[in-house]
# Entry
Amino acid sequence: MLGLDFELDGSENDFSLKDEYSATVNVFLHFTVLGTIALATGRPFLFPSLGPSAYLIATGEQPRAEGAYHVIGGHTVAVVGGLIAYALVGNQASSYVVFARPDPAFSVEIVYLWASATLAMMLTTTTMLLTKTNHAAACATTLIIALGLMGGLADSAVIVAAVAVLWYLHDKVISPLAQRFGFVPRDARAE
# Structure
């Protein structure tokens, strides 16, 4: 029977089922909790940029990207950058609406979205570098807002709250349990 500690011997393709199960269970627990909160509140506690953040946190691939300052701070910077850009140049356009039209080519609304996305990325990149809240996954958050996919103060608060729940759940609950039971994934890039 194959145990959870199964590892190949010395080749470049070494893997540990314990590592893969650990990361997979981590992500399952993260999204189960956030999905339950979304179900109970009717608010979008699940959104695309949580995926890369959950992966980084669960796999331990980038220790610097795991800390609250980087994860929560990076997404907060991204939310603010996206809100500013969308307010200044988004002109209430939404990617959902614009690209659902039969022939959206050369639409002025695409120009608004393009400008909003570009400005949001510029603001987010500069601010994350200045504040050292570098968390690449947050760049997806700024685009979600700048492209009119989510927005406004209520959705922005939900985004930051969801990221805080993700980080807190991992750091204060899942990670200590993983340490206790020996399910701590190794950094896949460290090999």
